[in-house]
Amino acid sequence: MTKRNCPICGNTSSKLIYKQRYSKELLHNIESCKACGFVYVSNSYSQEFYNKYYKDMSKYEDTRDSDLHEVSLGVIRQYLLKNDEVLDIGCSTGHLLHLLKKKGYNSLLGLDPAPRCKEIAKEKYDVNVVTDTIESFKNKRKFDFVILATVLEHLEELKESLKKISSLVSDEGKIFISVPNAGNFYQDFEEPFGEFSTEHINFFSSFYLQLLLPEYSCMFIKSDNVAIFSVWQKITSLKKSVDEYIKKSTAKLDRINRIIDKAPNSMIIWGAGSLTMRLLQTTDLRNKVDRFVDRNLNMIGKSIDGIPIISPEDLENYNAPILISSYKFKNEIVNEIKKRGLKNKILTF
């Protein structure tokens, strides 16, 4: 057995709150992190031990699992698209996947370390299950939706396992998580210390799920006396988001360039704001401007690179085509041109 640091914040200092003995050889020290307050078993076995345990000792499914799966199904279906690729980690014999299949979802795969689960899942539910652990599982494609139904409470290397799981989730993909609700253990129970099972080494409340998943945004979370049910969406990295913005903006700018290239050589540009300033530097617009028009009183009468800025009232003296250099106020400007009875040709981006 090894001494665990806090699975949430990594702090090494914790306070013993209970010793739960299961046999002469097996004793769990249930402790609370002095830094963040998370409650966990501090003297657990290695992840390899637990992987072997679940492989050899899987209890498959019981009535309680089925009841939880019905609740989970209702939550999952709110966020799962019909064509989403789904991976159910720790799926046992595939009952939850079976429920999804009955609702018309077909891209389903289960993962469980117990070999018998694969056989039962195929025979009983006709769903595919891979016999493997989180750590060693490899897959060429990423999944749009990953299910972790009552899994996190079992993981010894919690953050490392979640890192691996996250690598299997597609960009902006989602994770469903259900865990026993440790925050409500004290309410309405019969069996003393029944929640301190040999298999549960992490004890969650909603608060600690959010601390555990900083790279995900919470889309849904609810709890009852038994469990917490939640859906999380992967947040695209800031750099990746900005890269995508640049890519799409470049495509839009290329379209604007094509419009400007085909436009007449003498135009009136309505709009002397930041968009026009950028276009003067990045396109051939500068060589096609005769006048600027703007409603901003602070700009009227001034000039940009020697080209005058006039007011809308002055437009009646000009018949050159008007290019509207604005997205936000484009429709308003078009309406104003028409209300003024101007016959100028109107161009827009």
Topology:
Blueprint (H helix, E strand, L loop, with lengths): L13 E8 L5 E7 L5 E3 L5 H11 L5 H14 L9 E4 L5 H8 L5 E5 L2 H11 L3 E3 L11 E7 L8 H10 L1 E12 L21 E2 L2 H7 L3 E8 L3 E8 L3 H25 L4 E4 L3 H9 L6 E5 L9 E2 L2 E4 L11 E3 L5 H10 L6 E3 L1
Parallel strand pairs: 4-5, 4-7, 5-6, 7-8, 12-13, 12-16, 13-15, 16-17
Antiparallel strand pairs: 1-2, 2-3, 3-9, 8-11, 10-11, 14-15
Helix pairs in contact: 2-3
Report on this structure.
It holds the Pfam family Methyltransf_23. This is Methyltransferase. It comes from Candidatus Falkowbacteria bacterium CG11_big_fil_rev_8_21_14_0_20_39_10. The chain has 349 residues and is an alpha/beta fold. The protein has helices at 47-57, 63-76, 95-102, 115-125, 158-167, 206-212, 238-262, 274-282, 330-339, and strands at residues 14-21, 27-33, 39-41, 86-89, 108-112, 129-131, 143-149, 169-180, 202-203, 216-223, 227-234, 267-270, 289-293, 303-304, 307-310, 322-324, 346-348. The protein has 3 domains: 1-44, no CATH class; 47-196 and 203-234, Vaccinia Virus protein VP39 (Rossmann fold); 242-347, NAD(P)-binding Rossmann-like Domain (Rossmann fold), CATH 3.40.50.720. The protein has 9 helices and 17 strands. The chain has a 7-stranded mixed β-sheet. Strands 14-15-13-12-16-17 form a 6-stranded mixed β-sheet, with helices on one face. A 4-stranded antiparallel β-sheet has the order 1-2-3-9, with no helix packed on it. Strand 14 and strand 15 form a beta hairpin. Helix 2 (63-76) crosses helix 3 (95-102). The chain is elongated. The termini are far apart. The mean pLDDT is 93.
